Amino acid sequence: MAEKRDYYEVLGVGKSASDDDIKKAYRKLARQYHPDVNKAADAEDKFKEVKEAYDVLSDSGKRARYDQYGHVDPNQGMGGGFSGADFGGFGDIFDMFFGGGGGRRDPNAPQRGNDLQYTMTIEFKEAVFGKEMDITIPRTENCDTCFGSGARPGTKPEACSVCHGTGQQEVVQNTPFGRMVNRRACSNCAGKGQIIKDKCSTCQGSGKVKKQRKIHVRIPAGVDDGAQLRMTGEGEGGLRGGPAGDLYIVIRVKPHDFFEREGDDIYCEVPLTFAQAALGDEIEIPTLTEKVKLKVPAGTQTGTYFRLKGKGVPRLRGIGQGDQHIKVVVVTPSKLSEEQKDLLRQFAAMDGEHTHENEQSFFDRMKRAFRGD
Question: Which DSSP state fits 206?
């Protein structure tokens, strides 16, 4: 298994990076590697890596633990992060030397079905306002003919004559160290503990059939990219009367041409002419639901932010909405008529400014400054 990269390295920031630096780095990389934009084979893996790094470093508590312990969180279990799952192989070793004992799994016991994962791509505004839709997923379900038993209707599976229904065989070996018992899956019934002599004609004895299942999904308003929706009991069917697994729907949100999202807030950029910025104006701003008027005061500088309160994304777990932030960018005209140039020259002269057409250029003044003149 490949070693995880340092989360700061993934986002391309230093360990002293501010929350704002981390957000900016994440937004840039998320747009770069989003699977709907980047079609490279490793784009989705890199997108997941970036999202995982941001989820940790954007949370002050998780970031503090990561800075102290790295990828090994001691809170996940005793002994430096090891859990009971790390010792899963010891049972087989004890069985080998001591012939087993309590805790043996019943091969005929009900077994929960497998979980399924479905990736759903939705539009930016569908994530903001929510959506209801039907999806079709392939999954295995209990056979309707034999009700999951695998046997022809009117018959039933029989206990294996070799393992007597335990699903395991014991092989005894005499060694210089004494008598050793090795337990393994029964070769006659493949560890199932049962033999189906008369198989169901529909599922051929498996008890399962592949089906296309239509499921109605309600996507809540405010869901964000990478979120997971859990649908209980919509996964694979269980075995021997066991419950079905769950379906996890992973949400992928397409980027918007104009809006960008950060949490519950929306960001956008709006161009202003030099005259609008200098003299002030009332401009029309598109929001997620409508167009609103925004007053731009005289003397507004490029890069200034304005806020429209309550015009952002509905809060997924709360009341109200985020805000919309508008960044104004003053656009410098690239083509001017002679009349416009004359007016700008007059304006510069009135303001005491020097242009490149004056007797001394900017570069001349800069050279003189270096000489100490």
Answer: S
